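Need tokens for this chain, all 287 residues.
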Amino acid sequence: MKAEYEKIPLSTESSFHTFVYKNEGFEAPWHFHPEYELTFIVKGKGMRYVGNSVQQFEEGDLVLLGSNLPHCWKENAEENSGDVESIVFQWDDKILGEGWLQKKEFSRIKYLLEKSARGVLFKQELAFRIAALMLEIMQKPAFERMMGFLNLLQGLAAIDTTECLVAEGFTPNLNSKSHKRIESVYSFVHENYSQKIKLSEVSSLVSMGDEAFCRFFKKNLNKSFFTFVNEYRINRVCRMLIETNKQVNQIAYECGYESLPFFYRQFDKFMNCSPLNFKKEHFRIRG
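Here are the structure tokens for all 287 residues:
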């Protein structure tokens, strides 16, 4: 995707930017900005792209993003019957002036923000409580607002049950030409995952030869194109296993798998279990 630079609006009333986003869909393209971002999904379902990570998102999704980490959310049009909604906090690394993160009082927050370079996903059961705090902070006057925000960061820093989204070694390429190509590829997979995807189709989409495209994609995302496609499809399979009563084989075909043996191998590779065991375990945990 083309990672577009996003200019975060300045506020005369606060040192950080907060807002509730409501719309018919998430309109922001694959983009980046030097500010950190904390986003909670109030409403909507789809795929979340962060760096070289592609995962499902739904209500209760809470992610902390580091400076200049490319990201976007794409809702699933066939699953969303109404508007999408999110709560967003954005701030820069000089929110308290130069060098504030070097103070020992902020050592935990410093570590959290360093970790956010790979994107941090918080568990859903904690996320709803954090979202309530975010809404409270937004209603406070300036001083209490800042104190509440720092307490929020300190609380997030104390949570050790988090997941890093981006693989180690990933370095964002902010070259506009490269990101325009990745934007096109992501959109193509998002719209065509249920069909057979030919390498020649995708490479021609970005005006490259097959071999050149494969090298380009691997260099930019630290994974092969077809690894990315299979990650995307397996994520879709998992959602359908949970939300529908369709048979596993039918779901596999609907998500673009023409060979069932290949599908089962891919599912085991990414999920470390069979589709039926995944479904059983999900409902066992959810009760």
